[in-house]
Amino acid sequence: MREVRIHNTLGGHLVPLRPLSPPRVSMFVCGITPYKPSHIGHARAAIVYDVVAKFLRRVGYHVFYLQNVTDIDDKILRTATEEGRDWHTVSEENFESYLRAMQLLHVDSVNFYARCTDYIAEIIEQVRTLIEKGHAYASGGDVYYDVDTFPAFGALSGQRLEMLEAGVRVEVNPNKRSPEDFALWKGEKLGPRWSSPWGEGRPGWHIEDTAIAVNILGPRYDIHGGGMELKFPHHEAEIAQAEAATGKSPLASIWMHHNMLNMRGEKMSKSLGNVVSLDATLRRVSPEVLRYFLLSAHYRSPLDYAGEESLEEARRSLQTLQVVYARLRAQAGESLGGTFPREVQLTAGSRVYVRDLSEWIELVPRIYPADPEHQRGDRVEEDMMTALANDFSVREATASLFSFASEVHALLESRGPSLREEELASLVRPFVLATEVLGYFPREGTSGSNAPLAAAVELVIEARARAKEHKDFAEADRIRKALSEAGIEIEDTGRGTRWRIRS
Length: 503
Hints:
By secondary structure, the protein is of the alpha/beta class. The protein folds into 3 domains: 5-306, Rossmann fold, CATH 3.40.50; 317-446, no CATH class; 452-501, no CATH class. It has 15 helices and 18 strands. It has helices at 40-58, 74-83, 87-104, 120-132, 205-217, 231-246, 278-284, 287-294, 308-336, 357-367, 376-389, 394-415, 421-438, 451-469, 473-485; strands at residues 5-8, 13-16, 24-29, 62-69, 112-115, 136-139, 142-145, 182-187, 201-203, 221-227, 252-258, 261-263, 266-267, 303-305, 342-345, 351-354, 488-493, 496-501. The strands form 5 sheets. It has a 5-stranded parallel sheet with strand order 5-4-3-10-11, sandwiched between helices. The protein has a 4-stranded antiparallel sheet with strand order 6-7-8-9. Strands 15-16-18-17 form a 4-stranded mixed sheet. The longest helix has 29 residues, at 308-336.
């Protein structure tokens, strides 16, 4: 499996990804607090980690990607009061709007969004454990983490305790033993509250992330992502809570932090009021243009939004690639015209019927083995993969694609009609990578595409083959029956197992 190197904030250097349970990769990313409609800064975070998950899956890892949703928070309560609405309605409406935007942006790699309010019992249990282990204390109906009991606090960010700003999502309360201690449980008499051993209340901000992640991913997992502004105190608090509660360390093998989207040099933030609405932006430009812009700087570098000119520049640049890809698709359509539907053999050994050009293009990586020694497109795809494997260097990968697009344009001018099928497949490969991982091109015909289905059916067929190898013919028959009930017919031949969707 290809080595992927990632910048680990804890230590400050590139490290190879070494999953705890290969080929599985567990990834947790801090999600949104939906107290207001989302802005394009939220989209940058979402797209950065969408690329991470999709690339890791592309190279063979089985990624479980978890995000939390802070659906109860002081800011949500303030917005609800200001707008005269129920807090839950405010949270859900803004989160549903965010999900619709993610769908438009092809951010579809998250396996599970976990709402804080669905994990109150787990949060209470983790707080109880921290008290029992001497890392937290109850005071006046609240519960606080005793930072002095965790000497490693500050190792991730390099900041010392005295630099912690009181009031930054940390309740200032005379019941605290030390100003640096932070709330795990807040005693509340008004607003939403839940019963606990310390009285009615609701969770503190930091504890929800660790309670959710530890309960779903376990006491240790592979990657934790989030914004650089969360390193201190939020991520320091997560480490302190989880490692003290479970006795296992490190909480995350790799800590990834993306940098901010700025508005003419100043951080874009709802609290500063300088945000650019995500919904409004998606009404002005295509999702692909917004993705291209938000990926135009390395994820660890700040990206400046200078108004409409930023999006227009991105549109013009992306259009250069889109025009070449459209022409390449048209040439492939002419060269392969009249040959659909057609049966093809996938590299995994199974066979599938491809109904149209869009399906053929999406399945190219599974039909034709890569040949970077002899095929120009395959070499460019390899260059792009190498760049992405080096701390997700999207700019370098994109530069390779631009250079290649110029060559493709010249080749289509000189040899277009005479290009053979294998040559066309090689030319398409870098554009397929840019579609599936970077999201630069719309996935035409996605709703009717065989590509995602083919990957799933291949896995099932492999499971059936293993059952037959172990002479578990009852299990093999059960799999065949399950596929048939799902509308998929399979046929064992001397060249492997072929399948088709029953018409």
